[in-house]
Amino acid sequence: MKIKDIPQTGKLGLTVTWPGRNGLLRRTLVTPRNPRSGAQQVIRQNLATQAAAYDQLTEAQQQAWIAAAAQIQSKPSLGQSGPLTGFQLFTKVNCALLAIGAPTVNAPPVKSLLSPLPVDGLEVTNTAGAIALKLHTTNAPADGTMLRACAPQNSGCRRGVGYRVLGTLDSPQNGYVDITSAYTGRFGVPAAGQRVFVSVNACVNGYEGIPLVFSARVPATA
User: Fold this and answer.
1) Which residues, 6+ apart, have CB-to-CB distance to 106 below 8 Å?
2) pLDDT digits (tens, 9 = 90+) for 18-57
3) Three-state DSSP class for 144?
4) What percentage of the chain exceeds 90 in pLDDT?
5) In whole angstroms, what is the distance from residue 123 CA to residue 134 CA?
6) Environment class of residue 191 by beta-carbon count within 10 Å: exposed (0-12), middle (13-18) or buried (19+)?
7) In sequence order, what are the residues at sequence separation of 6 or more whose Cβ sits closer than 8 angstroms to the Cβ of residue 119?
8) What residue ranges in the chain does DSSP mark as E strands?
9) Could you give the count of Cα atoms lying within 13 Å of 45 in the half-sphere of its Cβ?
10) What is the pTM of this model?
């Protein structure tokens, strides 16, 4: 329910509070379902492995990560943010590298300037019941460009929730990157009338760029 209170987010006793689109919201604390899916377990294992790996670094290596992390701010929450810790940057970078199938690193990589992605739209077609999802490109996306998506939503939704990593983008063919198999392999085939949300972002040396978000409604069969 909507409430009037000081800005806050997170658990408080038996309730959870978060900032909504039209004000502060609060609900009863409920333990979320834990499906222990294969993809979920891989991410958890990656986090656990990299947390343990940081502890095995030399003092000089940890200090290098601490120095690099001091230059990177966390994502703002309630208007506040701060520099990352060396441990946070190490796990963030290496988990991102693992997500795109790249080797992990023990030294903080150079943070390069990320070029804008040549992706400008999502196209969903329905040909005799065969659903196809394609991203339109103006050039070949860089290697390691990450693809995320969430489960199909009702047509009225304008904001995706629960994005999951689906992999990296393949090379375009005739100006399009076909993401049908990646999407349906994770969420199944969306029905006509549902809305599909996807996001893409660059990933260079484990540093992720700002995601581009696209959505499209599945048309009726043509």
Assistant:
1) 53, 57, 61
2) 888 788 889 998 888 887 888 889 889 999 999 999 999 9
3) coil
4) 74
5) 5
6) exposed
7) 135, 136, 137, 138, 141, 145, 169, 177, 200, 212, 214
8) 2-3, 10-12, 15-20, 23-28, 119-127, 130-137, 146-149, 164-168, 176-178, 195-201, 203-204, 207-208, 212-217
9) 9
10) 0.85
Which tokens hold the place of 79? Answer: 């208007």
The Cα-based distances of 107 to 49, 98, 209 in angstroms read 16, 15, 20
Amino acid found at 204: V
Q: Name the DSSP class of 32.
A: P
Which structural domains are found in the chain, ordered by start? 1-32 (no CATH), 38-99 (no CATH), 119-217 (2.60.40.10)
